[in-house]
Specification:
The chain has about 475 residues and is an alpha+beta fold. It has 2 domains: about 5-215, 3-Layer(aba) Sandwich (Creatine Amidinohydrolase, Chain A, domain 1), CATH 3.40.350; about 215-465, Creatine Amidinohydrolase (Alpha-Beta Complex), CATH 3.90.230.10. It contains 13 helices and 18 strands. The strands form 6 sheets. The chain has a 6-stranded mixed beta sheet with strand order 6-5-4-1-7-8, sandwiched between helices. Strands 10-11-13 form a 3-stranded antiparallel beta sheet. A 3-stranded antiparallel beta sheet has the order 14-17-18, with helices on one face. Helix 2 (about 40-55) crosses helix 3, helix 9 (about 220-245) packs across helix 10 (about 250-265) and helix 9 crosses helix 13. The longest helix has 24 residues, at about 220-245. The protein is elongated. The structure holds glycine and manganese (II) ion (2 copies).
Length: about 475
């Protein structure tokens, strides 16, 4: 065989692999979906299958999308999907409903009549409405893009629900939150009434503990998305460090962070940016960000982006002038040491709320005693007033856990010390020093990986980065 003859099967194989890869990572512009790195339909399918296995025979699950919320008059907040619904569907549209049934249900949809275990109900396509509010999937798109077995318009769920419930012993449906409203609220109320009016009694239970149990451990695919959010947020932090100077305003640092975050493709911030300088550095969730920065102050910058529904949570504390004062550095180093010591303990089987938290508390207690900020060792709790950290995922404060760490979980480690002005018995040199250092760790098989390791964290590394004036990436 000549060279071309030998090479051509190889080229065909490469082309086939490239094509199949691009099919997986396809954009669906016709449905208003342009990103190609969303979690794949197989991830959500596998979540649905896991849930179906957990509910056993003769049970039905109904999950529904988040409500839309008015900001003022006829302006709405940007829609943000419910995390549990998203985790099961990948659907980011409002007024959508998922029915899962352990017994097969016969349906007729855009692909014909068949027997399925899952149906997604979505808004129908409507060119008039879409001209105002954007493209929708519609049932055909829901099957094509999200890979659900069946989909219909959201006006058609009743018949399918009755069919599914006709043989069911249990209905798993989340209790409607108090603030539920709009079309989805009517659908949920109707489902409750339908269930109660059935001839047989059907037990109503919540599925949330089952879904949230699954959400604790992140899959490799979720971690890929989360790493991207971390990478983008770290760039935003670097930008704030490199731009900060005396006379700027807190909101200008916030603006730079948000610019970088959105410029790199993140959709939202994971929570309102906290940029607190001087007297605001000691307010944990300060987010009005209106004050001017003055040399000599310290700034707590708790800012992070949300990428493809997954949150990030990172804090850096920096000196406005680019150099920590002696007092600020002393407090900073205690928080840094507490974080280092705590992170060393993060591994599977360890209880975060006990062992890891206790270790950080010890370091802070000893540090404050040594500096003379406290005289009584129990008093350290007056200055380290929040928990050491929490899981991160679809929510910034992600699904709760008993604290016993498992491989694949992502946690923040975020010790802090906050000393407000006029604190009785504390020398004024310590006043208005707030320091929080917050990083994300992934629990691995035998320890942890610091996901945010590329972002300067040591006091001197922060000072060095602050001297690299300029724009990140330029
Ligand atoms: N950004 C909120 C928190 O650190 O928990
Ligand atoms: Mn946090
Ligand atoms: Mn935070």
């Amino acid at each position: 065989m000549n060279t071309i003859g030998r090479i051509s099967p190889f080229i065909v194989l490469v082309l086939t692999l490239l094509c199949s890869a691009s099919l997986c990572a396809q954009s669906y512009a016709g449905y208003g979906i342009y990103d190609t790195d969303f979690l794949p339909p197989s991830f959500f399918k596998s979540n649905r299958e896991k849930l179906l296995r957990q509910i056993g025979d003769s049970a039905v699950v109904v999950l529904y999308s988040a409500s839309e919320h008015t900001r003022n008059n006829d302006v709405e907040f940007q829609f943000r999907q419910d995390d549990d619904f998203f985790y099961m569907t990948g659907c980011n549209e409002p007024s959508a409903l998922l029915i899962l049934s352990s017994n097969p249900i016969e349906v007729t949809d855009t692909t014909g009549t068949h027997t399925v275990h899952e149906i997604l109900f979505v808004e129908s396509r409507n060119s008039r409405a879409e001209t105002w509010t954007g493209r929708r999937l519609g049932p055909y798109g829901a099957i094509k893009v999200l890979g659900v077995e069946s989909a219909s318009t959201n006006t058609e769920y009743k018949q399918a629900l009755r069919r599914a419930l006709s043989k069911a012993k249990a209905l798993y449906i989340p209790l409607p939150p108090e603030e539920i409203n709009g079309k989805i609220a009517d659908m949920v109320r109707d489902i409750e009434q339908t269930t109660r009016s059935m001839q047989r009694s059907i037990e109503i239970r919540t599925p949330l503990h089952l879904i949230r149990g699954m959400r604790q451990v992140k899959s490799a695919e979720e971690l890929k998305v989360m790493r991207k959010g971390v990478e983008i947020s770290m760039e935003g932090h670097r930008q704030m460090m490199r731009s900060c100077k005396d006379g700027m305003y807190e909101y200008q640092l916030q603006a730079l962070f948000e610019f970088v975050g959105k410029d790199r493709g993140a959709e939202y911030t994971a929570y309102p940016c906290i940029v607190g300088s001087g007297e605001n550095s000691v307010i944990l969730h300060y987010n009005t960000n209106r004050k001017q920065l003055h040399a000599g102050e310290i700034i707590v910058m708790d800012c992070a982006m949300e990428y493809h529904n997954y949150a990030t949570d990172i804090t850096r504390t920096i000196p406005v002038s680019g150099r920590f004062t002696d007092a600020q550095r002393a407090i900073y180093n205690i928080v840094y040491d507490a974080q280092e010591e705590a992170m060393k303990l993060v591994k599977p089987g360890v209880n975060y709320y006990k062992e890891v938290t206790q270790r950080a508390g010890e370091v802070i207690r000893n540090g404050l005693l040594q500096l003379g900020v406290i005289k009584d060792s129990a008093d350290y709790k007056k200055y380290f007033i929040h928990g050491l950290g929490h899981p991160v995922g679809l929510d910034v404060h992600d699904v709760s856990s008993d604290g016993v760490l498992k491989e694949g979980e992502v946690w923040t480690v975020e010790p802090g010390i906050y000393i407000p002005a006029n604190t009785e018995g504390v020398d004024s040199k310590w006043w208005n020093i707030g320091v929080r250092i917050e990083d994300e760790v992934l629990v691995t098989g035998d320890g942890n990986e610091l996901l945010t390791r590329a972002l300067p964290r040591k006091g001197e590394d922060i000072e060095k980065t602050m001297q690299e004036r300029g724009v990140v990436g330029k």
